Amino acid sequence: MPLYTVPDKPAYWLILSRNKVLRHEHHGTLIYAHHSELSFVSTYIDEAVKVGEYHDTDCFVLDMQQQEPELDDAELIGLREAMMAEHDSAYNILARAWQVALFLRTHRYCGQCGSEMQRVDWELATVCHRCQHRCYPRISPCIIVAIKKQNQLLLAKGRHHKQGMYSILAGFVESGESLEQAVHREVMEEVGIKIKSLRYFDSQPWPFPHSLMVGFLAEYDSGEICVDGEEILEASWYKENEFPLIPPEFSIAGRLITAAMKEHDGVNTPR
Ligand SMILES: [Zn+2]
Hints:
Layout (H helix, E strand, L loop, with lengths): L10 E7 L2 E5 L6 E3 L5 H5 L5 E6 L2 E7 L10 E4 L1 H6 L3 H19 L11 E2 L6 E2 L6 E2 L4 E10 L2 E7 L10 E4 L6 H13 L2 E13 L4 E12 L9 E8 L12 H11 L9
Parallel strand pairs: 1-5, 10-14
Antiparallel strand pairs: 1-2, 1-3, 2-6, 4-5, 7-8, 8-9, 10-11, 10-12, 11-15, 13-14
The structure holds zinc ion.
The site of zinc ion has 8 residues, from loops.
């Protein structure tokens, strides 16, 4: 049963296939078209899910899973590449579409009784009509913190970072923990130092696969850097002119690094 009635007018289409995003040479990843113009969309029209609006126009995602769309002047690209090319509103739609598709793909059966789940038609959820178990898309909060010591920033090489990349510290919030507790714990676990003057910065959905990055700025308080050797392989204080390869500005990590370095030395709001 279709979840939404796809309107008989042009809309924006985000097409996912084989864990990639379709990008059209002219349209980009948000393809503006009437669904009848996209033959493969018509075949899967019942699977289309509205994920928001873009320029006051409905935006749908279509997850073709292992099938490949047939469209001239278009190619499948990785999510990271697609997101790097987008500005704010398109970025958010893409992040949401990816997570919605992942949610529907991974919630076909009930986690409680094993029956087939049905989509709820008025909200983004799946429900089991046998045991009433209901599921919503998973969002995993993750803290990320830029720590400054005078005019130096703590940068670390993580086990999962790409070759040569250094970044600020990040980690998942654990059950029963506040965001602030998570920051203090992660910093202590990963590099063995105490921090102070913790301030909220901004947040960013990060669909790899379903994180919500919550960014903080902080000041060094005490202790010597001692990396855990598990998640973090190396960490050190860097002056801006000595920075190694760092994350790009489209990520909250990149923006936090820029913001931290812009702050005057010695900014210190006790907490
Ligand atoms: Zn059930």
